[in-house]
Design brief:
Length: 114
């Protein structure tokens, strides 16, 4: 996950877009494995009723691997569909999450079972 001046920048490995896409797929699998480990660590702490404040390190690790997975995903889009498609996907994320933290909807009965 290359960070430069607090921003993400994609590094591509491979001589062709196909090889670059294949490399990013491998990177995404690694990212997802680390995300799974981070989620397991957090879940274990939640099951023991640990306060959220004590899980800052676990959430920080999850955050970093999630950013890495996003970089891998955007680089996969770029390698497979060129730069403009990657920009379109970034705009889509920005639009969908722009107002995410403005309100919380609570469902006290839990998630519906389907």
């Amino acid at each position: 996950m290359p960070l430069q001046n607090g921003e993400m920048h994609a590094d591509f490995f491979g001589a062709t877009p196909q090889a670059q896409l294949a490399d990013k797929i491998v990177q995404m699998r690694r990212d997802l494995m680390h995300i799974q480990r981070a989620l397991s660590a957090i879940e274990g702490r939640v099951k023991t009723n640990a306060p959220s404040k004590t899980m800052k390190a676990e959430f920080s690790i999850l955050h970093d691997w999630f950013l890495s997975a996003m970089e891998s995903f955007l680089a996969m889009v770029w390698a497979g569909f060129e730069r403009e498609k990657a920009k379109e996907v970034i705009r889509d994320f920005e639009n969908k999450f722009r107002n995410f933290a403005t309100a919380r909807t609570l469902h006290l009965a839990g998630r519906p079972k389907h």
